[in-house]
Amino acid sequence: MKYSTIGIDISKHFLDICILPTKETMRLSNDETGFKKFLNFLQQHTFKKILLEDTGCYHKRFVEFMTQYYQNIYVVNPKRIRDFAKSMNLLAKTDKLDAYVIATFGIKMNVKAKIKYPPLLEKLRIIAARRNQLVALRKIEKNHLESCLNLEMRLDITQMILLLNEKIKKLEIELAELIKSDEYYRKIYDRLQEIKGVGDILIITLLSELPELGYLNKREIAALVGIAPINRDSGNMRGKRSIRCGRGSVRKVLYLSAMSAIRFNDIIKAFYDRLIAKGKQPKVAQVACMRKLIIYINSIFAENFVNL
User: Fold this and answer.
1) Is 278 helix (H, G, I), strand (E, B) or coil?
2) pTM as predicted
3) H-helix or E-strand spanning residue 10
4) Nearest to 154 by CA among 144, 169, 168
């Protein structure tokens, strides 16, 4: 039988599946046994696309298994799915209903094809995420050290900080070796190193958390990071434009790099000074510098896609 779209709501233990336009549903286990049953079902029918939400971790094994056989699998931001459900006045939330909403989203909305990322991306993401976790833990320990008055506890905290420093350094070396082992990553890394204000941490963050670089235009990439001003106009009212949403972890590191670039990068510094001379507030000018920096970095990625 020919189907239009298949929507899958994935939880820790189950795959709740809705098939449109027939509205058939099924529940399979979120393991290899369930994957094989679903694959067997697909091989007996034709369909246009499979949609599922980004669950953070629970969908990864399913996607890894299915992409060996099919390429028209789309992973969608869960916030978009939830907002779409609200637009349909579907306020209730069940696994079966979520699967139906995901499938309907696939029919009604323009879902872009999945970007083909470099094969080492997943490993890079895992190592970078672990490094970030340890950096956050080190910050907590340093805060404890400042407030702790007990000598014995201060010694214990200091030893923990030294251990975390060692582990973080080890992961950074592993990340550097991974980047240098891949021709694409190495080429990008060398180009970005030439930009004053751009350091290793920003490069690692961009490679692991913003793989869309080079695929999107300058407006799209700025919006994805969350540094594109959003209008608040209605009738004669002209509201203050602001930035929001986007990838906060990328924006945080990009901000620090932009602050460094304003001091040491002649082009960014001149751009910042021009904005201040025009009467822009420092924060507004800083965000503009962040946007200029990420747009330039995006162009470098785009050039390398052409050349590789």
Assistant:
1) coil
2) 0.73
3) strand 5-10
4) 144
Question: Are residues 293 and 257 in contact, defined by beta-carbon separation less than 8 angstroms?
Answer: yes
Beta bridge partners of 75: 52
Dist. CA 53–CA 61, nearest whole Å: 13
State the burial class of residue 59 (Cβ atoms within 10 Å of its Cβ: 0-12, 13-18, 19+).
buried
Among positive and negative, which fits the CA dihedral 39, 44, 50, 53? Answer: negative
Is the distance from CB of 31 to CB of 54 less than 8 angstroms?
Answer: no
Residue 21: asked if its preceding bond is cis (omega within 30°), the reply is yes
CA–CA dist 54, 76 (Å, integer) = 6
Q: For the chain, first and last CA: distance in Å? A: 41
Q: What is the pLDDT of residues 153-207, one digit of tens each?
A: 999 999 999 999 999 999 999 998 998 888 888 888 889 989 999 998 999 999 9
Distance (Å, whole) CA 204 – CA 79: 26
- Residue 260, number of CB atoms within 10 A of its CB: 16
Helices (H), the chain: 32-43, 60-66, 78-87, 95-108, 121-147, 151-181, 183-193, 200-209, 218-225, 248-264, 266-277, 282-307
**Position 222: which residue type?**
A
* Residue that has been written with the tokens 């980004």 in this structure: 54
Q: Kind of pairing, strands 73-76 and 14-20?
A: unpaired
Helices (H), 148-182: 151-181
Structure tokens at 149: 């008055």
* Cα dihedral 208, 214, 220, 222 sign: positive
> 131 by DSSP, 3-state: which?
helix
Cα separation, 197 vs 258, whole angstroms = 7
